[in-house]
Amino acid sequence: MLKRDIHIESIYSELPFEKRFAAAKKDGFDFVEMWGWEDKDLPEMKNLLDENALKLTAMSGDGPYSMCDPAKREVYLEYIKKSIEAAKIVDCPILVIHSDALQEWPQFAKPMSSDYSYETRICAMLDVLKTIAPWAEEAGVTFVLEALNIEKDHCGNFLTKTKTSVDLVAAVGSPNIKVLYDAYHMYLNEGKIYETVEKYLPYIGHLHIADAPGRHEPGTGVINFKNFIKHLDKLGYNGSVGFEFYPQTDTPTAVKAVKECFDYSSVVG
User: Which of 9, 74, 244, 260 is catalytic?
Assistant: First the structure.
C-alpha cells in the first residue's frame, strides 16, 4: 500500500513554517516532507509532528557539498553523518542525496574543484555510496539518490538519468541505498515515466511528483498522474510518493488536485 506525503516547504508557503503541520493534517495528510534540516529547530519540529500525528517521510541529506567532487569527499561524508543524527531526532526514514550541491538561486550546480572527467565523477559517487551504506544500515535510514533535469531547473547537474542512478545503486548492493525517481525531472530528461518505473521498481525507494511543464500540481501539465499512480499501485509499489511542487494558484486548489490522484485506490496518508 503506497503512502502519499505533501511537501510543506514548496506547498503551504503562505503560512509560517510552524503552522504548516496543522494545515497538512487538517487537509487529511499523515505524512509530510521537507528540504534541508540545518535551518530547522529539530526538537521543535519533532514536537509539531507529534502534536499533529504526522510522520516525516523524507528530507535532504547532503546540503552544500557535491558527491561527485573527489576533493569534497571528507566534508561530504561528515555532513552525511550529521544528517543521520538529524534524521534520528525527527524520526525521518529517508534522506535525499544528489550528485551535486545546488546554489539557492539560480539553481545551478556549484562549480567543481577541478575539471574532472565523467569516469572520475562516477567513481567518486560510487566510493561515497559504498562508504555510507553501512552507516545507513546501522542507523535504519535509507539514502535515495535523485537525478535532476538540466533543461529547466538544475543546469550543470551531473546525474541526469535514471539508468545511471540505478547502476550506481545496484553496484553498492545495499537495501538502504535506493533511487529517488522524480517524475517531473525524468519526464523532462527522458520521458517514458510509466515504462521506467516498471523497469526499475526494485531500486526505487521514494518518488516525487510535479506536473510538467511548470512544476505545479497534477492537472496543470501534460502528465496524467491519476493513471500514473494507478500504474504504481498495479505494480505493487508500497513505498512513498511525495508531492513536491509549487502551486499554480493557491494551496487549497493544489491539495484538491493531489487528493484527486488517489480517489480510486488504497493509500496511506
Answer: 244
Low-confidence ranges of the chain (pLDDT < 50): none
Residue 244: active-site member: yes
Phi, psi dihedrals of residue 97, rounded to the nearest 5°: -130, 160
The architecture in CATH of the region 3-260 reads Alpha-Beta Barrel (3.20)
Residue in 146, 151, 217, 260 annotated catalytic: 146
pLDDT digits (tens, 9 = 90+) for 219-238: 999 999 999 999 999 999 99
The residue among 88, 89, 82, 93 whose CA lies nearest residue 141 is: 93
Query: In this predicted structure, what is the pLDDT of residue 268?
Result: 59
Query: Could you tell me if 248 and 219 are in contact, meaning their C-beta atoms sit under 8 angstroms apart?
Result: no
User: What are the φ/ψ torsions at residue 73 (nearest 5 degrees)?
Assistant: -55, -50
The pLDDT value given to residue 189: 95
- What pLDDT, on a 0 to 100 scale, did the predictor assign at position 155? 86
CA atoms within 13 A on the CB side of 115: 0
pTM equals 0.96
Nearest to 199 by CA among 173, 237, 172: 237
Q: Is the peptide bond before 70 cis (omega within 30 degrees of 0)?
A: no
Q: Contact, 5 vs 243, CB < 8 A?
A: yes
